[in-house]
Amino acid sequence: MRKMILLLALLTPLSLWADLQIYPTRLHLNPRTKNGTLSIKLKSDKPETYRISTMFYEMKPDGSMVQRPDLSRSEESAASFLRYSPKRVTLQPNVEQVIRVSTKKLNKIKRKEVRTHLYFRPEDSDTKNSRSSGTDGKKSAFSLKAKVAVAIPIIVSTEPTDRPHKLKNFRVYSENGTNYFSSELVNSSNKFLYGDFKVTRQDGDGSTVVAAANGVSSYIPQRIVKFPFLKNHQGEMKSGTYILEFLEYSGVSKDKGLVTKVKFKK
Q1: What's the pLDDT score for residue 244?
Q2: How many CB atoms are closer than 10 A to CB 109?
Q3: CA 183, CA 171: separation in Å to the nearest integer?
Q4: How far is 186 from 105, CA to CA, in rounded Å?
Q5: What does the alpha-carbon distance between residue 14 and residue 16 come to, in Å, rounded to a whole number?
Q6: HSE-up of 166 (CA within 13 Å, CB side)?
Q7: What's the rounded Cα separation, in Å, for the pair 67 and 55?
């Protein structure tokens, strides 16, 4: 019996899935920066071959992503406006490989921004799984070797524009013994948002960072953002004024940020 498990990893900064490392974990191209590179490295003891293609994903209001190959030619898709090479690569253990990405036909893009993902899929040639039979002779135990498919977001901007967005309904709360913050990230333009969230608490002891979420994306007009507090700020939630800040990236720089506050009392 042969099977392959494909686990999609939509990368965020400083993340690592299985044995495949990719940096940067997002490319933002525009008329000034038409070319970019991705550095990939395999942290394992044997070679692995990957095929590289584009894939369109649709974001749901909770931030989850689903594959939508049918939208690959939509006005939102950047697939028709990108060149990348190679499209197939055999990675040697711990040897860096560079993938080159560039834009084309920018004057044909109908939106201010389009997007796609570069999809790194392991070939099926090495999918054999180890198998062992149960000791009772009635059941068989299978050990499946996981194959990980990784998707890296690529954003193409046709011109620099303002990014009108805001935060709504910020709150902090406990759920099933875990402390969280949540907010609605509202975007009134057709630009794609990407940035860092930070929550600080102000009380009699000063200001303390209690939660952070970096590399958060939104491709839709309204997304619900929900993340847990840092490990050392779990347990009983303290009273105080909680401040949520969102610093949005535009290319490689951050904007001045959005700030909202909420007071919490036990």
Answers
A1: 93
A2: 18
A3: 7
A4: 30
A5: 7
A6: 4
A7: 7
Using CA atoms in the order 84, 89, 91, 96, what is the torsion angle rounded to 10 degrees? -20
Can you read off the two tokens belonging to residue 195? Answer: 């940035």
| 7 sits in which H/E element | strand 5-10
What span, in angstroms and rounded, lies between the C-alpha atoms of 261 and 245? Answer: 9
Whether cis (ω within 30° of 0) applies to the bond prior to 153 is no
Contact present, 84 and 34 (Cβ < 8 Å): no
Q: Where are the beta strands (DSSP E) in 123-192?
A: 130-133, 140-143, 146-157, 165-175, 178-187
Let me know: does 80 contact 68? Beta carbons within 8 Å.
Answer: no
CB 123 within 8 A of CB 50: yes
Element (H, E) at 238: none
pLDDT tens across 1-10, in order? 333 434 444 4
Give 138-157 pLDDT, tens digit per residue.
Answer: 444 433 445 677 889 999 98
Could you write out the three-class secondary structure of 87-115?
Answer: CEEEECECCCEEEEEEECCHHHCCCCEEE
Give me the residue label for tokens 């994903």: 57
Instruction: Return contacts of 67-74, CB within 8 angstroms, 24+ apart.
Output: 67/8, 72/116
Percentages helix, strand, coil for the chain (3-state, rounded to 5) are 5, 60, 35
From the list 214, 145, 212, 159, the residue with the least C-alpha distance to 189 is 159
